[in-house]
Amino acid sequence: MQQRSNKVVRGLNFQDLMVRLGAIDSPPKTPTILGFECAGEIEAVGEEVEGFKVGDRVVALPEFRAWSELVAVPIKYVYHIPDEMTFQDAAAIVMNYLVAYILIFDLVSLREGKSMLLHSVGGGVGQAIVQLARTVPNVTIFGVCSKSKHEALAATGLIDHLIDRTDYVNEVRKITTEGVDIVMDCLCGEECNRGYGLLKPMGKYILYGSSNVVTGETKSFFSVARSWWQVDKVSPIKLFDENKSLGGFNLRHLLYQQDGSEYVRSTVDKIFALWKDGKVKPVVDSAWALEDVAEAMQKMHDRKNIGKLVLDPSMEPKPKPATPAKSKSKKQASEDKGGKKDKDDDKKTAENGGGDEKKEGGEGAEEAKTNGDAEEGAAHVNGDGAAAEKKEEPAGATNGDATES
């Protein structure tokens, strides 16, 4: 399906940030276009495509390139959206709620009366997990996030205990000495050890992300290595003795490497059914013009968003600050000084070592000699406010298993 600028919305995920920083396995060859999630209308289909036609309203999960102006997507990654659903909601709901639904109902089988510790509760997946968990009666949620988000999240009334991440283990122990039944960890690193220690017998620990590897503006091999080496090795015998379970989930691997497309499609249908019934509603933190994608990614990098960030090409980019005047070149500066000297020749100053010299055969006027004048350098700024790349490709799918988005 072809993405037109006034009819399509893209989703921004933490996975995009990790790809940009090179902190992901099997990264794409550069140059590439980022993006795993987009919603819009189909503009062209391949000859053997069934179930989709031009004009259908869909959401797609391509492996990269979702931020392109035109992208060809195999039909196994394309899903019809309800007629009443906006493209913004479609781009905000699919990937986050896919992860949340599979975690809650397939991996931990959340039941009435259970307790759950959830890291990054203010993020897009965190908010999706909270909403889905609230469809199960009497579930206690311990939400871990930065203090700055507590007021906004408390206003939703969906989280029982909001805890600052700096000392969440002791805070949980103050509330319940028994611990929790479920830990949802998207951080990795030493949080794995802390979270495992909070599990009750018959508890389940699920790792579904490794955002702790993102610690700076560029990839840090040290942070990646540290994140994994900080995790204690847990033997199957220890799990057997303690009656605990460990699990992991990676949607990208399931969808693109392990042929889980049919399972994912059935899950998308369940999520849309919950949306129609009003049981879930995606939380959109903010929408951004494509030209402002760098600023949007920085907000996600700094963990300042509550809910989903989306990219909407129909929006006007934010005004950029005025560019400061360029510094004068050395030659221009010298010419300016020379012109001033001609006008003020009665006030010439000698600046060569501080000594005054008289010109022979002259009228005794002073001559200015300036050696080593300070050179004004031009500042070069790279990487500030980079605009998102738009790439246009010919419309029309080239094979039978692709639609164009």
Task: Provide the fold topology.
Layout: E1 9-12, H1 14-20, E2 38-41, E3 57-60, E4 72-74, E5 78-80, H2 87-107, E6 115-119, H3 124-133, E7 140-145, H4 150-154, E8 161-164, H5 168-175, E9 180-185, H6 191-197, E10 199-207, H7 221-229, H8 236-242, E11 245-248, H9 251-256, H10 261-276, E12 284-288, H11 293-301, E13 308-311, H12 330-343, E14 402-404
Helix pairs in contact: 2-3, 2-10
Helical residues, percent: 25-40%
Instruction: Give start-end ranges of low-pLDDT stretches.
Output: 1-6, 216-225, 347-405
Classify the oligomer.
single chain
- Gap from first CA to last CA: 3 Å
Region (Disordered): 308-405
Keywords: Membrane, Oxidoreductase, Transmembrane, Transmembrane helix
InterPro entries: ADH-like_N, ER, GroES-like_sf, NAD(P)-bd_dom_sf, SV-ATPase_mito-regulator
Organism: Anopheles epiroticus
Can you describe what's shown?
The chain is globular and about 60 Å long. Residues 1-6, 216-225 and 347-405 have low confidence and may be disordered. A 6-stranded mixed β-sheet has the order 5-3-2-1-13-12. Strands 8-7-6-9-10-11 form a 6-stranded parallel β-sheet, sandwiched between helices. Helix content is 29%, strand content 16%. It has 405 residues and is an alpha/beta fold. It has helices at residues 14-20, 87-107, 124-133, 150-154, 168-175, 191-197, 221-229, 236-242, 251-256, 261-276, 293-301, 330-343, and strands at residues 9-12, 38-41, 57-60, 72-74, 78-80, 115-119, 140-145, 161-164, 180-185, 199-207, 245-248, 284-288, 308-311, 402-404. It folds into 2 domains: 1-99 and 259-318, Medium-chain alcohol dehydrogenases, catalytic domain (Quinone Oxidoreductase, Chain A, domain 1), CATH 3.90.180; 108-248, Rossmann fold (3-Layer(aba) Sandwich). Helix 2 crosses helix 3 (124-133) and helix 2 crosses helix 10 (261-276).
